[in-house]
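Technical appendix A lists one of the benchmark inputs used to test multi-chain prediction within the project. The record comprises three sequence entries:
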Amino acid sequence: MTLSVGCTARPGKSRENRTGAWRTFKPNFKHDKCTKCGICALICPESAVHENQDGFYDADYNYCKGCGLCAEECPAEDIEMTREEK
Amino acid sequence: MKELRIHGRGGQGSVTAAELIATAAFESGMYAQAFPAFGVERRGAPVQAFVRFSKDKIRLRSQVYEPDYIIVQDSTLIGDVNVFSGMKEWGIAIINTERRIESEVPEGVRLMTLDATRIALDVLGVPITNTALLGAFAAATDVIHLEALERALRHRFSGEMAEKNVKAANLAYNEVRGGTV
Amino acid sequence: MTQIMEGSHAVAEAVRLSKPGVISAYPITPQTHIVERLAEMVADGLLEADYITVESEFSALSACLGASATGVRVYSATTSQGLALMFEVCFNAAGMRLPLVMTIANRALSAPLSIWNDHQDSISLRDSGWLQLYAQDCQEAHDLHYIAYRVAEDHSVLLPAMVCFDGFVLTHTYEPVDIPGQEEVDAFLPAFSPYQRLDARDPISFGMYATPDYYMEFRYEMERAMQRAKGVLKECGKEFGERFGRDYSDLVESYRLEDADTALVAMGSLCGTVKDAIDEMRGEGKKVGLLNLRVFRPFPFEDVKKALSGVSRVAILDKNVSIGSKGAVGLEMRDTLYGTGIEILDCIAGLGGRDIRKRDVRRIVGLAEAGGGDIFYGLREEVL
């Protein structure tokens, strides 16, 4: 590593910081009662919830910190939080 | 002088744990010093806190590099940071895990484990594991006694919260298992 | 009574027992815990003061300045960028001869952004006309506030005072601190007796303009007051020792200097680590000692010279740097020791929170013995 002049940084640095290990609880997207409303993706503070090919939503566990906001907000109650094994 | 290093994640109460141990040691007649590894922590990010105990006044202010004891609040930290760095020969490592992790622990470390997350969830309802781990620390070392820890907890918290934390510490005191690796 | 508490809370306790009538501050890391605790004390009725909330540090110190001019004891606290924002008001407060007391939770200055400890913030205001005291532990951080008020408010001084203590290293450290009772503090620090004050029935203006015919004389009077502060600091420090058992009658603290060949010079919390390193080196037969500069303004030239009269060399741990020159302590030491033949090594060290360990102190003693030139100590060559 060499120092930048003026301590500058370019975009994309936070991608290197995989925050998935921070979880105590993990959201399981059951795709059972899901209406594909997409609120989970909108509410995720880490933008770690993405639409898949079938139009359902899944979390990217490399970055999901397990905050549980998606499960809390899901109108169909189709996301379940389970304890992460550590 | 003995030194303790606590590894945790932001929100698990590592700094509070350090302060509580220092309080318990101070109230047992020792000189104690507790301080965090100062950072711009967010909830979940790796953090450290330190405690020194001594019969005499403590003047040293550098961080703890060669601990007699470590407490690891989250075993996933073992992959992220070298929690065993600089540990003294036959130092005691108290680790919160539900798995068997002997293979991840270097030789010459006395490993003690417990599922502090389950205790915290059962008793406190939130995964804040610090007070349970303090109970384990009291069981694993002769630095602080459980009674001194209970007094420190009742000093820090009040009412139901104090009693719940005392209960978590007691459960952990009785559950922690381990020995020489 | 001795209790275990955070350094910031030990300072808040000292402020409460000093009974300021007005507090104004703006929260900034790592000063925050001090002012949060004071706000709680005011809200809970434990401290009868007006806590003026403001939108910036500039306003905080301006509020304190105005309040002090009305004849009330005032308090503020800040650090780093906050102190930088107060720059103008700091010079005004000193020039108006208002005895404000302010805690500096020492922190590095941006950029790059750093919340960690060094002395660059307060050192950058060394020319402002404020007294500067540096605490080496939480007890001293507590005690020095009483002394700061006594000396600042003394009618032979009438200059504001900064009590500097290291951000995080002391502000966030839990350790035992002896907190005296209110009656004991009252006996040492009576109610504020202003030399002059704003009074609608007898109007005056503070800080009027001075033409070239007078400006220098006003500045010279400040210098004379600063020199008188040395004697007042010693008297108050002695009286404090008699009352509370902790003596501050010396402007500098000498540690194992009696027969030392090499003297380390440091300020603030670093002194504890240096003392432990000295004890280790003494055990190995090395004649080393420490000069702790407890008072940086007024600079104690005579006391430093006397304390170091027997040493061959001095190694300075400067937690600041004047970019383009040297460290502030190093420059003062070269002035003080000019002509004595004592060798001087100035190490810029511990900037932006870089930890200084006992082994670093030993290495610096080795560098001084080898007779090298001034350096930035412990640079990571691999990133340069």
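The radius of gyration of chain A is 16 Å. Residues 71 and 77 of chain A are 7 Å apart (CA to CA). Comparable benchmark entries are summarised in Table A2.
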